[in-house]
Design brief:
Length: 125
């Protein structure tokens, strides 16, 4: 899958519907969150609530060509789940849904973070 297919505009709605975040006739509001170098990071707001969706890129958004395995999103998702489920007072959001075809995951949104995981984990746990 090329970079243009990874960043096409239709996938957030497809993912939101697959994850059950919105009904088939609903068009949620989607906005880009900052901090996305290795992922597209979006905030999806629907009638039922708001979630962060992350989709791994195969080519990072940096000056030089930097390729990366997109399946890393599932390692991140597994780590977030482990932290969320095992640490009291954890900073990790819950993983709500994974899509292995889109190399994407849906995370709970607290309403405060710019891009869940980015700032928190760069500071350390």
């Amino acid at each position: 899958m090329g970079q243009s297919a990874e960043t096409d505009k239709g996938w957030p709605l497809e993912l939101a519907r697959k994850a059950g975040l919105c009904s088939g006739d609903e068009n949620p509001v989607v906005e880009t969150l900052g901090g996305g170098v290795s992922n597209v990071v979006l905030l999806v707001r629907a009638r039922r609530g708001a979630w962060v969706v992350k989709r791994a890129l195969s080519q990072l958004l940096v000056k030089e060509v930097w390729l990366a395995d997109r399946s890393r999103i599932f390692t991140e998702s597994a780590c977030l789940t482990l932290i969320h489920d095992s640490m009291r007072g954890h900073p990790a959001p819950a993983v709500v849904f994974e899509d292995r075809d889109l190399y994407a995951c849906v995370l709970e949104y607290s309403g405060t973070e710019a891009a869940p995981g980015s700032r928190t984990f760069s500071r350390g746990l």
